[in-house]
Amino acid sequence: MGKFDALKEKCYTSNMQLPELGLVLYTFGNVSAADQEAGVFAIKPSGVPYSKLKAKDMIILDFDNKIIEGDLRPSSDTKTHALLYKNWKKIQGISHTHSTYAVAWAQAQRDIPILGTTHADHLAIDVPCAAVMSDEMIEGDYEHETGNQILNLFKERQLNYAEVEMVLVANHGPFTWGNSPEKAVYNSAVLEELARMAYLTLQINADAPPLKDALIRKHYERKHGKNAYYGQK
């Protein structure tokens, strides 16, 4: 068994969840799986149909984008993943999709407002949307700068990446992460559903108010607070 086989398998399995969950079309999207202690991550190859992917096809890179193992070209979003891993030491998985409703909010350049308790079960604030990328960033190291868009947003808004595990990049789409690639994919599915629910809510009532603070606190704390009681011990 190769040194990185387990990491490749974890990455492959998580990538295969994206089409199963209806979060990607054709070759859109990617998931990576990191080993923070070793300073490496696995990511899917660029442009290979999911039906043809195999675990052995996953590419291993370090956090400076140097290929450690693999013969195929890694995902075009690899530099974004690498920069987030390098700066956020607690994350072990990143998922990027072009799912319909999340992308629609990103294209509208809008945060997804917190309107209901389903949202509050996962996040106590609006899903943030990073600013439109400048021409200088676009013409520079584009994928690396996409990572900087996300890092800059979290710095400017003083957000904790361990609590806010999802973001929209304006005109691009969603990125999610977590303490495993499985959690990152879970967050992608949740984000798409929150985006869909918010869209439908505002179609029914364009003036729908945000969820009241007491309900936000109740629903978030019962799942994530120190006295959380959702689920099993």
Overview of the molecule:
There is one protein chain. This protein starts with a helix and ends in a 9-residue tail after the last helix. With 233 residues, it is an alpha+beta fold. Strands 4-3-2-1-5-8-7-6 form an eight-stranded mixed beta sheet, sandwiched between helices. The protein has helices spanning 5-20, 78-87, 100-107, 117-120, 135-139, 142-156, 181-204, 213-224; strands at residues 30-35, 40-43, 59-62, 67-69, 93-96, 129-130, 166-169, 173-178. It has one domain: Class II aldolase/adducin N-terminal domain (L-fuculose-1-phosphate Aldolase, 3-Layer(aba) Sandwich). The chain is globular.
Structural class: alpha+beta
- Please, what is the average pLDDT? 96
- As for the CATH topology, it is L-fuculose-1-phosphate Aldolase
Please, how many helices?
A: 8
Number of strands: 8
The share of residues in helices is 40-55%
Share in β-strands: 5-15%
| CATH class category label | Alpha Beta
- The succession of helices and strands, N to C, reads HEEEEHEHHEHHEEHH
Concise account of the structure shown:
With 233 residues, the chain is an alpha+beta fold. Helix content is 40%, strand content 14%.
